[in-house]
Please model this.
Amino acid sequence: MSSPGWSLQSSRYRPMMALGLMLLAMAAILINLLAGPVSIPFAVLWQSLWSSVNAAAGPDAVAAEVLWQLRMPRLLLGLLVGGQLAMAGAILQVVLRNPLADSHILGISGGASLLAVLLFLFATDGVLTLAVWDWQVSVLYMMPWAATAGGLLAAGLVFRLSAAGGLTPMRLVLCGIAVASVLNALVGGILAGWGHANAETVLAWLAGTLYGRDWLYVWALLPWSVLGLLLLPVMAKPLNLLQLGEESASSLGLSVTRWRGLSLVVASLLAASAVGMVGPVGFVGLLVPPIAQALVGSDMRRQLPLSGVLGALLVVAADGVGRSMPGVNELPVGVVTSLVGVPFFIYVLRRQS
Amino acid sequence: MASEQAAPWFRWGGWGLVALSGSLVLILMSLSLGVVPVAASAIIEVLLGEQGGLAKVLVWELRLPRTLLGLLVGANLAVAGVLMQAVTRNPLASPSLTGVMAGGALGVVLVMSYSSWPATASPYAALVGGVLGAAASIGLAWNGRLAPVRLALAGVAVTALCSAVVTAVLLNVGSSADELFFWMAGGLLGRSWPQLELIGATSLAGLLLALVFRRQLNLLALGDEVVRSLGIRVWRWRLGLAVLAVFLTAQVVAVAGPIGFVGLVIPHLARVLVGDDQRRLLPVATCLGAWLMVVADVTARTLVAPAELPVGLFTATLGGAGFIALIYRQRL
Model:
């Protein structure tokens, strides 16, 4: 993806790029917080950032309520999900040495969705009672665990299936497509059987949505994001070596198999826990890493964090676009990312010969 | 080969007998099984018009049209798969993997949501959408030849795009979405005589047409140079048969929604049984597809009765396993 002569990669432009990104991020965040059915004046945001919510009275109180109970958690969750998906994509593309690798295509999203849906199916009123100890556990907090387990299982299955006859990247992608389509069919079937009355909720979840996500979701996902963030500095160097190819990496003293497996686990963890909270948001992990690579080159110490930032931005911007669409319901964020991501996927596919 | 020449009609008659009796057994099973079982004797009485009441409603109004529809849907999908695989000479070509199904579904959703056309227009909407979907995936995957993996990936892209648009449309329309969502899940629940009337004649005509052209299908498998040297216009046949495949798929999509994998797996299963000769492959695939669909439908409605599972659950599970077996067999 990177052309050697591309001037953007030279360090001269880096401060400018960082500034541009910051401005973009600020704009996206402000628009997402302030625009909507209830438009909120900037003054309210400024005020409520520094003083307690209750201090405001009258219409400002409503605005502050909308801001803090609806838009802020949604924004934060969007940032977390986008960052996680994009970093997972960056890791997968390095490990599988394939620009088409993405948690969606490799079945990780499908596995995560399936377990998430099953969890909801067996819970009543959002609480799952574990029969053995009579524990009452909120489904929401179990969701990232279940989704991660599902993602790992799916990834493991895809690997096992494609490893049997030589692990070529294309074969991996094919097995991924097969497993993903089965899992997606199962998810669709279960949801269709369960959710006749609330078709719209189901549809939105299947596409991946941030609608109605409150602080609980943010708190449930946050530990996983933090875990991912802590792991990233550890991952960057081995990933750099893996980029060199198997022989070079092992001759430089990297135990390739172990790091490859570990990277896959981390990628599944990041992607699947995000999918468990918002549904399968597609193509973020596919779209972002090449852009990050074009901007800062293929050094993972820079590319990985930048992917995270860009992914967060992409999801928040997509959510902003989806919310402002006319129609009865808002457009789920996953639909917007797919509409942007598919043409890019096609572009990559056409380039690969 | 010599023995085949000896008594062709006897051989074909034997196979025909097997197919017919198998189908009859399955139809009887499908008519009798359900939340309320109906005895075989009662079924025969209903079919002869000698019994009314509950049994008549169950058998005549609910189960018979549904069973016939299942046979047609399965046969259509299987034959569409055989045609697409022969035309593109690509083992992964099939209605669901090349975006035909998703394109057709998008066509139906668009027409049903934004136009005032009656439901009878949906097969044509599916046909237009399916042709566009197939053209898009094949066009995207084409780089001088049609590699299986590229076709599958292009199909994934087209399918993802179509389903994103479908979701957007359904959420945008709102109130009428419930019905369409139900249909999008795929299956035969609640389908009856009107649906059968809608696609019955056209599907049978399409299936017959495919059988008529079995020799041309065989020739297409030989490769372009050979076929051209025989004086056959390759591309004309390719295009015609591909459109026929999309037409058959569109009939299915219009009434039963998108049902994946049958069109991918059944042709390969038939190939394992009788080999590559399209003259045998086509009828065998037709039969297997029809049977699979009826069995899947009966399972879907009896497994957790009185509730009903979507047929897609079974076809996807079966089909996914078949798909993976295929990846191994073909060394893709």
Summary: Confidence is low (pLDDT under 50) at residues 1-6 of chain B.
